[in-house]
Amino acid sequence: MMKLKGKGACPGIAIGVISYFGSSAPEISYKKIQDPVYELERVEKAKSAAKAQLLEMYEKALPELGKESAEIFEIQRALIDDTDYNNAIENIITSQKVNAEYAVAVASDNFAAMLSAMSDDYMCARSTDVSDVSQRVIRCLSGSSEKKFCSGKRIICAYDLTPSETFRMDRDNVLAFVTARGSSQSHTAILARIMGIPSVIGIGRELTPECDGKFAVVDGTEGIIYIDPTPQIMEDAERKRSAAERRRELAGEFIGRETVTADGKKVPVNANISSVSDLETAVGNDAEGIGLFRTEFLFMECGGLPSEEVQFEVYRSAAETMNGRKVIIRTIDIGADKKSDCFAIAHEDNPAMGFRGIRICLEREDIFKTQLKAIFRASAFGKLAVMFPMIISLKEVKMIKEIIKEVKNELRIMGTAFDEDLEIGIMIETPAAVMISDILAKEVDFFSIGTNDLTQYTLAADRMNPAVEKFYDPHHEAVKRMIKITAENAHAAGIKVGICGDLGSDPAMTEWLLNAGIDEFSVPPSEVLETRKRICEQASAGEPCSRVES
Ligand code: PEP
Ligand code: MG
After folding, report:
1. Cβ(501) to ligand 1 under 6 A?
2. How much is the average pLDDT of 420-438?
3. pLDDT at residue number 548
4. Following DSSP, what letter does each residue of 53-105 receive, concatenated?
5. How many whole angstroms from 294 Cα to the centroid of ligand 2?
6. What CATH superfamily is the domain 2-21+147-241?
C-alpha cells in the first residue's frame, strides 16, 4: 500500500479505480516560417475561436455553478487579450520567424513561470489559467480537439487540473480529484468544493502516472490517498462512507423543519459562506439564514479593491437569495493567513497577532466606509445584519458605531433606501472581548463567537502552525469557560449569542453548547441538517434569551 498525504480541498470519502489524467496539452511543432503576417493572422483567428469556446463554457457554467465560479471562464477570456501576453507572442513570431503554435507555447511557459514564482497564492494560481488558455489557443491553431475523459466512475489523479478540465468532467463519473500540484485558492479547488467532490491537492511528485488503473481510497477530509489500500483501510473507509451517507439520509428528514430543542427553544441553524456561489448549497441544505458571510474572499479574489457597486451587487444578491432569512455580513477580516494585494501589509513575524480584521478597517476608513455603504444599501433588499471581527476593546466598538452613523447620514442625504434597524453585532474571538463582554454587550445587538480564533488566542497556539496542532484544542476547559462567560454576559444584557466557529458543527459539542446558552448556530452549509437534527433531539438547559425572536 502507498499512503500519500496532501491537503484536503473538499471533504468526503471515495473508493474506486484511479484514472490518471495526463496532460491534455497538444503536441507543439517547431517550424521556421517566411510570412510572419500570415502567422499573426492565424493567431488572431485562433484567439477568436478560443474566446467563443470560453464564452460557451461560461454560459453553460452560469446556471450550473453560479456567477462567481463561471467567472473563471471570463477571466480566461480576458487573459487572451492581455497586452503583455499578446506582445510576447507577436515578438516571438516576428523576431524569431517561427510558427504561431510554437510562439504561443513559449509565451505561455514564460508567463506561467513568472506567475507561479510569485509569493501571492492568488497570482500563483493564475499560472494554471495561462497554460489552460494557451493550450486552447494552440488546439484552435492546430485543429486538434480536447482530450476525452475516461468513461465510468473513476478517481481522477493528475499532476494538475486546469479549471476548464475540472469543469468539463462529468461530475456523476468523478469519484474524487487528487492532484500533485494545486493550492486551496486555485479555481480548480474552488470548483471541486462547489461540486462537492472529495478532493486532495498538493500531494507532490510522488503522485505519478503509474497509479493509473490502481485501486485507491481518497479521504478528502484528512487530505490522504491510499493506493492499493490494505483490507483494514478499505474496511475503515467503507465504514466512514456509510456512516456519512446514513447521517446525510437521516438529516435529510430535517429539511423544512424548524430547529427547536426537545424543551421547545428555537435555535436557528445558519450557514457560513465565503461567496455568493455558496448560497445555493446553503439554500439546498435549508439553512435558516447566513450566520457568517466571510467577505474578505471577495477582496482576495478580485485582484483589486472591489468597488462599492461590485460589493453592493454581491450583498444584494445574498439578501435576495435568502429571501427574508437573515444574512450576517462580516466586514473584511484580511490579515493573518488571508492575504490580499489590495492591502500592502508589511511582513509580520507573527501575523495572527498582527495587523488584521477591524484593526485594518479602522485605519483604512475609506475602504471600511465603502464596504459599510454597500452593506447598508443592500439592506433594502432583504434582511441583513453586519458584524465585526477581531474586536478587543470598547473603543473599537464606539469608533465603528460613529462610522456607521456617518454612513447612514450620507445615505439619508443621498435619499438612498436602507434598513434603519439593521442589527450590529461583533465577533467574540479574542480573550479580551470575552473578558469585557459584559461591557460590549450593552453596545451591540448580538454576539457571534468565533471559536477558531478564540481557541488560538486563548491557548496561544497558532491555528496555522502544524507544530502546535496538539495544543490547539477547542474542547479545552479554558475555551469552554470563555464561551460560558460570553453567553452569560450576552443574556444578562438581553442580546443573543451565536457561534460561527467550527466548534458549532462538532457533534461532540452540540449538547454542551446548548447548555451553555448558545442561541444560534452557524456551520458550513453541508453541516446544517445534521446540526439541526442533533439540536432537535437534545433538550436545552440554557436560559432562553429574553429578546429572542427568530
Ligand atoms: C472564527 O475565528 O471562529 C471565525 C469564524 O472566523 P474565521 O475562521 O474566519 O477567522
Ligand atoms: Mg476569526
Report:
1. yes
2. 98
3. 36
4. HHHHHHHHHHHHH-HHHHHHHHHHHHHHT-HHHHHHHHHHHHHHTB-HHHHHH
5. 10
6. Phosphohistidine domain (3.50.30.10)
Ligand 1 pocket member 429 (CB < 6 A): yes
71 lines ligand 1 (CB under 6 A): no
Q: Give the residue among 272, 179, 278 at the shortest CA–CA distance from 220.
A: 179
Q: In the numeric block, which cell numbers belong to residue 235?
A: 474496511
Whole-model pTM: value is: 0.66
Q: Please indicate whether residue 333, judged by its CB atom, sits closer than 6 Å to ligand 1.
A: yes
For the question of residue 347 being annotated catalytic, the response is no
Which residues crowd ion ligand 2, with CB under 5 Å?
429, 450, 453
Nearest to 348, CA basis, from 362, 338, 363: 338
The topology under which CATH files domain 36-142 is Enzyme I; Chain A, domain 2 (1.10.274)
CB 465 within 8 A of CB 488: no
Q: How far away, in angstroms, is 532 Cα from ligand 1 center?
A: 21
Average pLDDT over residues 272-297: 90
Q: Please indicate whether residue 342 is annotated as part of the active site.
A: no
- Would the pLDDT of 91 be above 90? yes
- Length of the chain equals 550
